[in-house]
Amino acid sequence: MNNIVLCGFMGCGKSTVGKNLARKSGRKFVDMDTYIEEKAGMTVSEIFEKHGENGFRDMEHEVCLELAEMNELVIASGGGAFTFERNVNAFKNKDIIVFLDVPLEVIKNRLKNDKTRPLLQRPDRDKAMKELFDKRYPIYKKAADIVVAGQHTPLKTAYQVMDIVESRKK
Ligand code: S3P
């Protein structure tokens, strides 16, 4: 069984949908950021602080290569991972890449009290978020094999992804 890899903007529900999807599809769940944190022995914020964003992106790429070697996983990627072609290429021919498409306003609301995402810790947060969202949106779409509207409950979205993945097999 190949991997299902969820991509999309921060707060689109990759981890919560991913956990449900893993249970429903009989795959093991891996959260890419948690995996990076365990390997590095520090949080994503600490990695950004100590090694900068580039240092984080290198670790992220290493983890993409490692996970792409495995099978039977549901992977919740980090929000930036699939904006890099080298990471898309790691999974593209083997696994199913799913973009969870959630409107920016929903995401903004979900992340309004979040302190864990270094890219959003800035005074002009709303403006920066919109710019990043607009820039990344077409990139996620291009990277994905499947686009699913992800603003419903995580369980409902997981079922939607399952249905599409199953129908593609036939
Ligand atoms: C990032 C998203 C985060 C995390 C890091 C960078 C991004 O993951 O990888 O803070 O560039 O969008 P989530 O999408 O799980 O928040």
Structure explained in plain terms:
The chain is an alpha/beta fold and 170 residues long. The chain has one domain (4-169): 3-Layer(aba) Sandwich (Rossmann fold). Helices cover 56% and strands 13% of the residues. The chain has helices spanning 14-25, 32-40, 44-68, 85-92, 104-110, 125-143, 154-169; strands spanning 4-7, 28-31, 73-76, 96-101, 146-149. A five-stranded parallel beta sheet has the order 2-3-1-4-5, sandwiched between helices. The longest helix has 25 residues, at 44-68. The radius of gyration is 15 Å and the shape is globular. The structure holds shikimate-3-phosphate (S3P). The site of shikimate-3-phosphate (S3P) has 10 residues, from loops. The site of shikimate-3-phosphate has 10 residues, from loops.
User: Architecture, CATH level 2?
Assistant: 3-Layer(aba) Sandwich
Overall CATH class: Alpha Beta
Mean pLDDT score: 96
With helices defined by DSSP (H or I, 4 residues minimum), what is the helix count? Answer: 7
Strand count, sense and barrel status of the largest sheet are: 5 strands, parallel
Order of helices and strands: EHEHHEHEHHEH
Any idea of the CATH topology? Rossmann fold
Number of domains: 1
Number of strands: 5
The CATH homologous superfamily is named P-loop containing nucleotide triphosphate hydrolases
Content of β-strand: 5-15%
Shape: globular
Distance from N terminus to C terminus (CA atoms, Å) equals 15 Å
Write the layout of secondary structure elements.
Elements: E1 4-7, H1 14-25, E2 28-31, H2 32-40, H3 44-68, E3 73-76, H4 85-92, E4 96-101, H5 104-110, H6 125-143, E5 146-149, H7 154-169
Helix pairs in contact: 1-7, 2-3, 3-4
The chain binds shikimate-3-phosphate.
